[in-house]
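Render this sequence as a predicted structure.
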Amino acid sequence: GLACCWQQAGKWIAVGTSSHIEYEQQDLPGGFVWGSLGRMEMGDLKRRGVMEAAERDVGAAQTEKKGETLASRLSFGKRIPMKMFRRRNVLLYTIGLVLLYFSVLSVSKLSVASPPDSDVSIRLRKAGKRVQEIIDTDPWLNSTSKVDFKSHEKTMSEILKATAGYQSCRYFGRKHRNLCCLNTNNQYTCFPTLIGIGAQKSGSTVLFARLMTNKNMKFGAKKEAHFFDFRDKWRRGLHHYLEMFPEFALSELSTHLTADFTPSYILPAQACLRIRQVLPHARLVMILRDPVKRAWSEVQMKLRYDVNIRDFVRRAVSTERFRKCAERLADSRTFLSDFRLNSFDSVDTCVPKELRYQQLYRQFTIRVRALARDNERLANCTKNARESDHPDEVWLQCIVRPSREMITLEDEEDDIVQDLEREKRELEICQQQKANRCFGQARKPADISRDNLYRGLYAFQLSECFRWFPREQVLVLDNDDLKSKPVETMRQVLRHIGLDENAAFDLNDSNAWAAFREQYPHFESITGWQHDAPVSEMPPKVRRFLENYYEGPNQEIEDLLGRKFGWMKTPEGGR
């Protein structure tokens, strides 16, 4: 048979066994065919006299040396061998398919990601995976906005349909307190209604553990989701956040709630904004503690974490397998350099299997990657390890070494004050420049103590949150009340989220911690957090610096909330 192809020169080419001939379009049936190649029936070609012409040209072509075509000429007048002609058309066909694919892709993107500018809710529904970008750049709800919950149901349904195939989302319970979505397995998963936003080291984990004893509360896979403050998790999409929480039975949709207690949500300015746009019904809880005690407690937690990670690294680097990897590193650099490609294969081969499945292993690999990115430090560590009688200690110090801003186990009293002075100067510069980006950068657990002073500036943090949430949706508690008035405080929290304040809950901390540790067995080893952990005495110079620094901010939080907290009554130095 013959194939006819539409060429750029406006000619149809009829291709025979070893030749191709130009024909005008009107001499062929069917008109233009989309694509690089179009086939025609043999009878159509015969009726047009194409076959006879092709047979004549084939006969003439047989007399041509090496089977080259005789009658075929393209618009630029050169003869094309048959093999080259076939390659040219395969190339054109491939290009056509690629262009068609990207055309369809671009049209589909436009239909999903280019909503009109008039209606923000429509823009959000059509945004699909771009919802996070719209929320950060074009928020539509603030503290005084009246929420249209029906419209929000539709908005969330469209988003989760587009990104994860959920069927629908709707509110359940009184006063739109529970937003749940139906997944492809016909099971409902609910977003958290109660969100603990802070402050760190102020009792949020204690409150969370006590709530776990309430039969109407359900909890997800993680106590701290870090969805609204960690950029990488935020960009994964709302379905990623929703999948962190448990499924609900139909009978539980109006009676049960779930919670997310991530005390760093109060730190970055955009976290409360994001929560308001996604979960406008959410009830927030903020626990305040004497900022002087809070700062020192956080330092102690960080030091406990350092002890845990040091013990793990010491076990890892003391093995024979690690020593062999370190020796290879001196010559080929294969052990750590692969981490620049985000590959964990090399370190997996250098660490015993029993250590690779422990919770701190990920933190170990993060620190190894940090070392691998620093060529100069990596070279020095390799050199020092080869020359030392105790190479394990050299690798230990190289891998666990924190950034210079962090308070460490080796810091003396004056070193700690110097670190705090440095942060104070940075905060003053940010306040002068009104650069919110300087405040409350969400850190990974390895960098938990870089914002010691900022985490106690409660008035600044809450003022930002009050821009987006009505004050009646933000419950501010005193850490002292959590200890001295546990029953009254728990009832206050239950009223805040719309549950029966007389419902049974267990204030026996031993039972609460048993439930907590069963649900989150690795939380303490990963974070360094401990319930009622012993706290070393605060050095006098550190105490004096913190008391002086927080004198003004304490007055600001009193003015903002119109109330005095227990830790404000007596100066810290008088205790």
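Summary. The longest strand covers residues 283-288. The chain has a mean pLDDT of 74.
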